[in-house]
Amino acid sequence: MAVHPVLAAAGQFLHLSRTQAELFNQPQSLSLSDGTQVTIHAAGIIEFAPINAATQAILLSCGIHGNETAPIEILDAMVQDILCGRLVVKHRLMVQFGNLPAMDIAERFVDENMNRLFSGAHSKAPGLVNQERIRAKQLEDCTRAFFLKDLLPRCHYDLHTAIRASKNDKFAVYPFLHGKPWKAQQISFMQACGVNTILLSNSPTTTYSYFSSHQFGADAFTVELGKVRPFGQNNMADFAEVTSTLRALVAGEALNLPDYQDDAVNLFSVNQVINKTQPDFRLHFADDAPNFSDFKQGELLASETGHEYRALVDGEAIVFPNANVALGQRALLTVAPVTLQQANEGKADV
Ligand SMILES: O=C(O)CCC(=O)N[C@@H](CCC(=O)O)C(=O)O
Ligand SMILES: [Zn+2]
């Protein structure tokens, strides 16, 4: 029997997806020698089912923004190791490489920011079709089918890197939970990944992690693993903790998570979500101000015709400032420190 092209290519699924996408025009299945079942749904979308009964369904995504390369390199190596039998999955696993055309041009996106197109936003402008909208729907469809296959506990870690430097190099956005408690165990999992700064989101969004969290009850995060760099220019030693923890997770190994302690984590709640509504939107701090730079109450952070946006409390910090987003989109988040107990006040026990 002919060897499947991904095995003939030593597990280089991402490389084949980017250079010979036509190989994956139709969904296809194969078995690995250790019994793992592999389903390739499309270029850049691959699913693994272990030989044993799984106890979790794990979705790992990267490259939703095409120039955020470190997560792509981390998951590319993981998929190669699984396909070559060097890493054996013990749970159901889907890995998605999001925006392949944007990777090819080393840009965040081709036509539109894909991480604003989930929870159906891809189809909310009738007549507007572009490759990000088509792909966001395809990713959603695969995720829905993957999670709804059974009732196993679900998680989704959507891996990114940030545009600017950050006072806290690695951080994660915990999507809005609609009043459910934030989980200490999940925050400890992030810590084990080397991510000790967590932003607790306070409203629904059209991001991918919110989609999985809200629609499927998955433990989900958008994980920022440092600063954007071109392919091949990441120092993989910077990602040792996230790499080994994610590998241990999919391999069903003991994770030995630290007990949750407030003083080991920087927890922030979102104070303001500032959207750009006018073409003259501008930021009032240095272009190179890192994420988590903090301001005094009343300091001017941004302005546009008809609006001034100021820090509401002392110590309010900026995250993801970007004046170049499309009208109507988020141009800045501000956050303020919080403890887990304060954040979970009045909610059921964690
Ligand atoms: O560094 C930046 O300005 C953006 C980095 C990035 O892509 N962040 C995500 C965060 C998504 C979330 O809020 O969950 C994004 O903006 O899509
Ligand atoms: Zn991103």
UniProtKB/TrEMBL annotation:
<keyword id="KW-0479">Metal-binding</keyword>
<dbReference type="Pfam" id="PF24827">
    <property type="entry name" value="AstE_AspA_cat"/>
</dbReference>
<keyword id="KW-0056">Arginine metabolism</keyword>
<keyword id="KW-0378">Hydrolase</keyword>
<comment type="function">
    <text>Transforms N(2)-succinylglutamate into succinate and glutamate.</text>
</comment>
<feature type="binding site">
    <location>
        <position position="65"/>
    </location>
    <ligand>
        <name>Zn(2+)</name>
    </ligand>
</feature>
<feature type="domain" description="Succinylglutamate desuccinylase/Aspartoacylase catalytic">
    <location>
        <begin position="55"/>
        <end position="249"/>
    </location>
</feature>
<dbReference type="GO" id="GO:0009017">
    <property type="term" value="F:succinylglutamate desuccinylase activity"/>
</dbReference>
<comment type="pathway">
    <text>Amino-acid degradation; L-arginine degradation via AST pathway; L-glutamate and succinate from L-arginine: step 5/5.</text>
</comment>
<dbReference type="InterPro" id="IPR050178">
    <property type="entry name" value="AspA/AstE_fam"/>
</dbReference>
<dbReference type="Pfam" id="PF04952">
    <property type="entry name" value="AstE_AspA_hybrid"/>
</dbReference>
<feature type="binding site">
    <location>
        <position position="160"/>
    </location>
    <ligand>
        <name>Zn(2+)</name>
    </ligand>
</feature>
<feature type="binding site">
    <location>
        <position position="68"/>
    </location>
    <ligand>
        <name>Zn(2+)</name>
    </ligand>
</feature>
<dbReference type="InterPro" id="IPR055438">
    <property type="entry name" value="AstE_AspA_cat"/>
</dbReference>
<dbReference type="InterPro" id="IPR016681">
    <property type="entry name" value="SuccinylGlu_desuccinylase"/>
</dbReference>
<dbReference type="InterPro" id="IPR007036">
    <property type="entry name" value="Aste_AspA_hybrid_dom"/>
</dbReference>
<feature type="active site">
    <location>
        <position position="224"/>
    </location>
</feature>
<keyword id="KW-0862">Zinc</keyword>
<comment type="similarity">
    <text>Belongs to the AspA/AstE family. Succinylglutamate desuccinylase subfamily.</text>
</comment>
<feature type="domain" description="AstE/AspA barrel-sandwich hybrid">
    <location>
        <begin position="264"/>
        <end position="337"/>
    </location>
</feature>
<protein>
    <recommendedName>
        <fullName>Succinylglutamate desuccinylase</fullName>
        <ecNumber>3.5.1.96</ecNumber>
    </recommendedName>
</protein>
